[in-house]
Amino acid sequence: MQLSTVQQEPLVTMRGIEKVFVGVRANAEVDFDLDRGEVHTLLGENGAGKSTLMNILSGLYTPDSGSIAVKGLPQAFRSPRDAIRAGIGMVHQHFMLVPTLSVWENVALGLEGNSILMDKDLIVKRIRDIQDRYGIHVDPMTPVWQISIGEQQRVAIIKALYRNAEILILDEPTSVLTPQEARALFETIRQITAERHGVVFISHKLDEVMDISDRITVLRKGRKVATLPVAEVTKESLAEMMVGRKVVFQVGKTLQNPGRVALEARDLVVRGDRGRTRVDHFSLDVRQKELLGLAGVSGNGQEELCDALAGIRKIEAGSIKVDGYELAGRPIREFQKRGVSYIPADRMGTGLVRGMNLRENIALRKYWRKEFTRFRFFIHWENIAGRTGQLVERFGVVHPGLGYPARMLSGGNLQKLMLARELTDDPKVVIAVQPTWGLDVSATLFVRETLLEQRDKGAGVLLVSDDLEEILSLSDRIAVIHNGRLMGLVEDPDSVTEEQLGLMMAGTCLEEFRPHSAEAPFAPGKVV
User: Fold this and answer.
1) Which of 184, 326, 335, 452 is the most buried (most CB within 10 A)?
2) Strands (E), 362-454
3) In what order do the strands lie in the sheet with 340-343?
4) What is the mean pLDDT of the chain?
5) Measuring CA to CA, which residue among 472, 473, 460 is closest to residue 505?
6) What is the pLDDT of residue 252?
7) What is the value of pTM for the model shown?
8) Which residues of the chain are under the pLDDT cut of 50?
């Protein structure tokens, strides 16, 4: 992308932004600019201050000191509504939509001046105008719960543009998209910037950062390290600026000879929270010393599947065996005793408890063990505290103290805390759902190496990830799920590309590919 050579007043000027939370300096004298027609990427490790800075710009937080100007006019935002009035829209990682409402109702929700009787036809017409203008199409009449994750993201973007946003903040926008959906998003971004709007792009995927950015600002420990044009940086230099040292991108994956089946699932049928079938006669095997990657667009049943495999969700039908022992219908503690460790995607809803401190969260799934009890009935808090201290140090959890509640930690450190609890007891089966989601470069590398270490020790690892680069680089085999069904099993990850897996993730069964066609995405004999 090319920046305009015409010098104009920046869309956004932030100067000397300071923000402190409970003695922790989240932003320290940070300067940030956004020009018209520009994609300005914000990079940094977890806890570097990216989200805080953008939450200040979007009106969620008030800075302790510093100034903000939008199109040259000084601003003092007291709420997100103030920021919206100034032309700022933010699309969060978790789309703030109401599933039971239609697309047009979600777009209209919260509009100023709305009465009980909204002009539906006028709203729908304007939505269609925005869709045609920016190439982001989704049926305005469809309930949000019936559309894909990628389409939900389009709704969130339409909602911001409907409010005349000239400044769009996208927080980890490709984390739940297929490669095809990510490309479509980038086309939308380019169309938005072609109209002289500005986009702030937050991502941990350095390849896409290099592709979409005009300028990149790197934050480290709350301070700005540098702002540079994309032409003057590389992936390696960006990673080094983020963490303060050289970073090796490739994990040290070694070849292993898989052993016997560690986890066996047969014809599983699982219902979701709304009673609908989310897993439909799904079968898979995970062997010892094997990492099986499960690829799929978020929301296609993989989380319900993993909940069932970990024993926290009831199955309607089917069989679950660990080392040949039938666990279907058994209590969750039986799964734990048989060596099943679970890293759920919902770190604060399923994995950890916000109000509990670090010691209590470490003890959650282990308090009944002999080393953590006294006289069989009392919790041995001294032993738990000692163990917690060892684990947070080993996994690099940045925290204000072991007695502080988990809600005081950043998202990345919450993930590290959960990994510390689940991956340190030589489990037989590790089920990891989005384990690197929201983590920075160095933390992501640490998690990936830890999963491979578990595999090399003899565990069977089931890795569920929306990041196809992660699936392709770590997996020994790859399964693909769509709408709760198995689309196919790839025996050799080197035989497929992200594009080919993306087609399966979108609902193309493996059998539909023609192996002898020149356009066939899979070589004969490479997949079964």
Assistant:
1) 335
2) 373-374, 378-379, 429-433
3) 340-343, 429-433, 460-465, 290-295, 477-482, 485-490
4) 85
5) 472
6) 65
7) 0.68
8) 2-6, 514-528
